[in-house]
Specification:
The protein is mostly helical and 71 residues long. It contains three helices and no strands.
């Protein structure tokens, strides 16, 4: 359930284009790597979450950024 939930969140984040696509792809890849019971398998997932958190807290919310256009 944990992995499926994060994959769905990753897909929603990827489609919304609110975060860098590479960070979201790393998040999805990292959560899929968690299925393999190896030591340090959560490092990729943690790095992706840290990157997304950094983007979330460093972007300005002045509202002057252009909105994405949808076809």
């Amino acid at each position: 359930a944990f992995v499926l939930g994060w994959v769905l969140v990753g897909v929603a984040m990827f489609r919304s284009r609110a975060y860098p696509r590479l960070a979201v792809a790393l998040l999805v890849a990292g959560v899929l790597i968690l299925l393999v019971p190896l030591p340090l398998s959560g490092v990729v997932f943690a790095a992706a979450l840290a990157w997304i958190g950094y983007v979330l807290f460093t972007e300005r919310s002045g509202g002057s950024s252009p909105r994405p256009t949808y076809a």
